[in-house]
Amino acid sequence: MKKTFILLMLSAFILLAALASAPDPAKVAEAPPPPPKKVFEDGSPWKAVDQEAAMERARQVPEFVKTVLKESPAERKMRLGEKMPTLADVPYRYMIIDSPILKSPPFDFLSQESAGSSFPGLKIGDIYGPVRFMHLKHAAVVKDCTKCHHYKPDQPDASETTECSACHQKPFDPEFPERPGLKAAYHQQCMGCHQKENKGPTDCTGCHAKNPPDHSVLVKLPDHPDPLMVTKECLRCHDHTANDMLTSAHWLWRGPSPYTVGAEKRVDMGKATNTINNFCVALTSNWPRCTSCHAGYGWKDANFDFSDKTRMDCLICHDTTLTYAKVPTEAGMPYPQLDLKKIAQSVGKPSRKTCGDCHFQGGGGDAVKHGDMNGILYYPSRNCDVHMGGMDFQCHECHKTRNHKISGRSLSLPVAEGSRSCQDCHTDSPHKFHTGEGHEDHNLLNHHLNRHTEHLHCQTCHSPVYAKCKPSKSWWDWSKAGDKKRKVQKDKYGMPDYSWQKGEFQWKESAKPEYLWYNGKVSRHLIGDKINPEETVRLTFPNGGIADPESRIYPFKSMRGKQMADAGNHILIVPHLYGPEGYWKTLDWDSAFEKGMKAAGLDYSGKYEWVETVMYWGLTHETIPAKNALGCVQCHSALKGEKTCNRCHQDNRNVNFKKLAEKGTDFEFMASQGRDVSHLVGQSDYLNFEALGYKGDPIIYGGRFKKLPLGNETAGMEN
Amino acid sequence: MQITRRSLFKIMGAAGGLSAIGSRAAAAENTSDDDYGCLADVGRCIGCRKCEMACSKVNALPPAQTSFEDMTVFDRNRRPDEAAFTVVNRYFSSRADERGQPVPAYIKVQCMHCLHPACASACITGALKKQENGAVTYNPSRCIGCRYCMIACPFQIPAYEFSDPLTPRVRKCTFCFENISKQGGLPGCAAICPVEALTFGTRSELLKIAHQRISEAPLEYVQKVYGEHEVGGTSWLYISKVPFEKLGLYPLPEKEIPHLTETIQHSIFAYMWAPITLFGILAGAMRFFNPQQMSGKPSQIQTEKEV
Lengths: 719, 307
Known about the structure:
The structure holds two protein chains of two kinds. By secondary structure, chain A is of the alpha+beta class. In chain A, about 25% of the residues lie in helices and about 10% in strands. By secondary structure, chain B is α+β, with helices and mostly antiparallel strands. Chain B is built from eleven helices and nine strands. In chain B, the strands form four sheets. A three-stranded mixed sheet of chain B has the order 8-1-9. In chain B, helix 1 crosses helix 8. The longest helix of chain B has 17 residues. Chains A and B meet through helix 7 of A and helix 2, helix 6, strand 8 and helix 7 of B.
């Protein structure tokens, strides 16, 4: 009896406690969003597989090699003859240089703390992080394994390519006084070669990521500081950095536009001034909503002071707690519930989270704008993005940043502070050696694949579908907006087809991109440009053509929609959407257009119409693992029939040409994983050669600049 | 025989000179082949300034004015001071690379830890001392702030805390004395050097390495180890691909700097023979010239003269 009573009381107490802790729905809406969960799509804990494997290898310390075979490079080549190691002997294409030897005695005292230094809270051994090393790429570029693996251990069965850390371990070893320690061996070898060959970085941060000092001892703030106090505290030490930031694209939302046709020398273009899109259209008159992604506080109207450093938001990029978030409608102010002191005291390098909170979520929601970036990339699987998922790349590792100017460019916006391409790391002949079982024959293709790089951007084959892991918006019809009664339907991906505020939508998942010639230049429709209402207005369009040697085929997401235009003046309208007098409150287009156009300084005739627009977005992310890139047959239908490689090659040396040509993106597997790609299975016209300006499949008709010497019409007729 | 003041000095000088023959200064009594040293290979140094950073950290020096990543400091030559025991300077040699750009040479400057340190010799209180492991160390509790060491040093290394009016110290590289006294310990700069431009070891071993390195690349390296013989030898040694004069390492005499002064002083005061001789001679002279005084009638003369 007593027991039941106690149990009863206990359960009542638990129930009460649960009720008390149940969140108030009104408060939930105001609370900052929780950090993204570190899990795969299926809910299992996330890990970067290639990275972890490389780190595990880096931890191994091999047995010390005492004596090596002293021979000159020439002697060694003579001794080895055809047994010289080749790319086939490269066991690991990717490595992390982070041996425990580098931090063991006598380097252990580097991990001591001492007062008065200029790096408080940071052990000097920890200023620089480990190095990511593209082993296979180096092997392929250097072409001679023995250049780095310069001596062989003096044992008959030792490997010709024994790892560095077997011979080089402790520095200043009295027994081996002239043998550099591991750290010096790496630096001498890497920097020496980079210097000699005039290739590759020779500065510290060219190879190492730099770790920020522990700011918990540096940042001095009262409890519950306001955001501007935090910035002031940052400026106490980083005033020069703020000066760099003052002229950056992330602060000004405008800047140099070297890749926009006709505006190569301009420095005033950008979201802040004159670009227009077919999502939420334009910034002007809608500031407080749009500027929730601005790296600043309080850009709520046209009068924001861009010279006021104290209004910069350092935390939006440098938060490492993954908790910092801005209120979507407060002109860039963060959620007041956040512990800004704690966030400021743990600042560090940006991450996929800090970049992604704006760049994954552009256009008002996850995956809306970019076809190749979405919230999945916070913690993607290797198949979703091989760099971020396989090797845990953070955004800034590719988008190298100097003085707060972040390299990289896009089609959607004109501002560029430097450019990045796959070739920067992977070179112009990136197909080197395919490792792994079943890929031996694949290396026969490398010659042909490397010649593709003159005519295709890497993404064309290596990102065969976009919005691979999450549907992205592909159609937005503003003309349908305003019907509060219309029932919102879910499409086959579970995405809404309508919003009374915004109109009608369509979404695409794992979609085939549009392929166009692209030479890096973009034609851009700006606010105030005249339109032809009869034609689809191209808001952004990649320049290029088959006859232009600078142009290569590139994949795009085309965002199409209907948006508002001035029927009298024939210009696109800047609508006033957000605010007490905006369309989303009043549902009155006339007033919204008048106010928006007035704010934009444009004449509004009073009559409007809906015009179709298209906006091209380049696709660079979501790189698929190499073995899943498009295969020969998927584009070259000429290889699909009986004759494949043996159209030209007579000698087949037991190579199964058919199998080789038909290897490629496994759409069947992707479909089995729930991706909407079943219609792509078995396709052999992934690229439409005729649409790109070719006469037909270049295998039959020749390339754009090269006529096939023995080209023959009948060859094409067999298929 | 008339002995004037001047002739007396002549005799003394001759005596001192005589005793100096065959007896070298005794300042080197602490040094041996097992002394630690450091070999700085100017050809390897990349000018990363990490040694400066490690030095600052290990010795708990005041925070630097500018970041250790600021390479604009190379625009002027610097000297070690009370806030930086070591600095790296950049010199442009006459060499140019394939693109015609002058090739920089970086040289780390710090106390050379001479085998016969002039600073220690000049120090009147023994605050500076050549330790058995090779380091020349400074004991602030003995220092009286005369700064003779700063004048004596042939490399202009010791600096003084002029900014501290109450307890100013002479500051210079310590060779991380405490670290290298431990088994397997390293000076901060050598430990952090990413390219082993600094090699730490016993001086005899380092000399072997240095000679091996320069003789293996005779077209690249200057065939000389700076510090092997300069001012009687230093614990820090330099080898370089550009002439040493172009790096601020000027030719210096091979004789240890304190040689002359110490020879004179040490030979004069050895076994107290000089004072004894001097006072003996003086006593003899007095006896010779003034026999009356010895016979016990000094007052008479005085009285006579007064009268």
